[in-house]
Design brief:
The chain has 17 helices and 21 strands. The protein has 463 residues and is an alpha+beta fold. About 3% of the residues have low confidence. It has 2 domains: 284 residues, no CATH class; 146 residues, no CATH class. Strands 1, 4, 5, 6, 8, 9, 10, 11 and 12 form a 9-stranded mixed beta sheet that branches. Helix content is 35%, strand content 21%.
């Protein structure tokens, strides 16, 4: 049973803090060092000062990045930069955006032409933000779809222990073809929003506070029987579970407290705006790796096609052709992986041979798992052809991840990497089927776009 609850969110007061565009951030794990510096420069009240503070030489337990965040949080509350209303509420959260698979996205952002697009309409992804009760995975209420790493969880746990505040919502999916909750709250969007901001990617984030007890209760009842799948925020969710266990151990005779809940952005898989981008794999540091040697090892499993180029212009055309062919192969139910090697004069398209028996190769996997590009990439290409085992992948010894196709090309052509492997995105149906079966995909198999913005609503633990 999925239990959600309204809450009185800690929020920025723009009269004291300034415009939200200068305050809000992408999720903490998406904040690169360059983004961190940019966020710090925007405002002394930017959320990055709390969720991704600066680690300083000589930090001690008494003066750490976590202690500074706690002190800063108290100061902001005393100054009225962050305020907390008296009435608990749910929050209707809309994200209006154009999918970024078109190459023009970055150019539109830089030239500020997003609003001048004449063709097509933006998508709107609608979420309900509420507190969700933390449930262990074996309870059959909340399901994961990816593996997690210990390092990020240790970092987030120490921050949560120190500041006693959840600054970000995790992004969860549920399925309701009738779209009952969205229809119930639709009228709220007809009034002026309580918060509105445009992020660095041109995504417009709008939020309405819903305090009507009857509507809140109705939404709770609608979602009560839903199964929830984590789309983004696996590390934060598992950090919440670990923190709850610590709370219960410290107060064994108390019932569930506020540490048993975490802010959630709940999104219906049947509504518009569900966009999953592929995450490509960049490899470097593999001893003895050559293009010829790799293809010799891959030949028993993959058919190979080449898309040649001679200069930057023909390379762009070849890359576009590669992506079209990869998408066409996916539409036919084929596994298709692109690759560019350093020094090569062509992209290579690898299609899994029809005679390859996936059930024999991966007997312990579901059919939905066997259909994924990332499954073949990790279990055939990395393990069998490159000698990169699961432990090395988990520790990211030879791999880094990029969202944009062009970024993968740049890493290779600039000499930063030996190769980049390009994959198709997974579908929402595959994500839900695999997660609800209790299975997980390889790390970084999904990249839901856009991200749920951090800092719109925060949850301060009281007990």
């Amino acid at each position: 049973m999925a239990i959600i609850a309204p809450f009185a969110a800690l929020r920025y007061d723009e009269r004291k803090a300034g415009p939200l565009e200068a305050l809000l951030t992408q999720p903490y794990d998406k904040i690169t060092p360059e983004m961190q510096r940019e966020y710090f420069a925007r405002s002394p009240f930017n959320l990055a000062h709390l969720v991704k503070g600066e680690v300083r030489p000589g930090d001690t337990p008494e003066n750490s990045v976590y202690r500074r965040a706690a002190s800063l949080l108290r100061t902001w509350q005393e100054q009225g930069v962050l305020v907390e209303p008296k009435s608990p509420a749910l929050y209707l959260y809309w994200q209006e955006f154009w999918p970024p698979e078109m190459k023009e996205m970055k150019e539109m952002k830089e030239r500020k032409e997003r609003k001048e697009r004449k063709e097509g309409k933006p998508l709107i992804r609608k979420a309900i933000v509420a507190l969700g009760k933390l449930e262990p995975y074996d309870a059959g209420v909340v399901f994961r779809h990816e593996q997690t790493l210990t390092g990020p969880k240790a970092d987030r746990l120490e921050l949560l222990r120190t500041v006693k505040t959840q600054f970000e919502q995790i992004f969860l999916l549920y399925t309701d073809p009738a779209q009952q909750a969205e229809k119930l709250l639709e009228a709220e969007s007809q009034r002026p929003p309580d918060a509105r901001a445009e992020d660095d990617y041109g995504v417009i984030h709008t939020m309405w506070q819903v305090e009507d007890p009857a509507k809140i209760q109705a939404v709770q009842e609608i979602l009560r029987d839903k199964k929830l799948v984590i789309a983004d925020g696996h590390h934060r969710y598992e950090t919440g579970l670990n923190f709850e266990r610590e709370c219960r151990a410290a107060r064994p005779h108390d019932g569930p407290g506020d540490c048993s809940y975490i802010p959630m952005a709940l999104i219906n898989t049947e509504s518009e705006g569900i966009v999953i981008l592929p995450t490509h794999r960049v490899v470097k540091g593999i001893a003895g790796l050559s293009r010829e040697g790799f293809h010799a090892k891959a030949a028993p499993y993959f058919d190979r096609r080449q898309f040649r180029f001679f200069d930057a212009e023909t390379m762009e055309e070849a890359g576009r052709h590669l992506r079209q062919e990869m998408a066409a192969a996916a539409a036919r139910g084929r596994i298709a992986i692109g690759v560019l090697f350093a020094g090569a004069d062509s992209f290579d398209l690898l299609e899994l041979r029809l005679e390859v028996n996936r059930a024999q190769l991966w007997p312990g996997l579901l059919e939905a798992e066997r259909a994924l590009d990332v499954t073949a990439l990790h279990h055939l290409i990395f393990e069998r052809c490159l000698g990169v085992d699961e432990e090395a992948v988990r520790e990211e010894r030879f791999l880094t991840y990029v969202r944009e196709f062009e970024e993968g090309i740049h890493r290779v052509t600039s000499g930063e990497a030996q190769a980049c492997f390009f994959v198709n995105s997974v579908t929402i149906g595959q994500v839900m089927e695999i997660a609800l079966a209790g299975r997980v995909m390889p790390q970084k198999s999904t990249d839901f776009y856009p991200k749920v913005l951090s800092g719109l609503v925060m949850y301060r633990l009281r007990s």
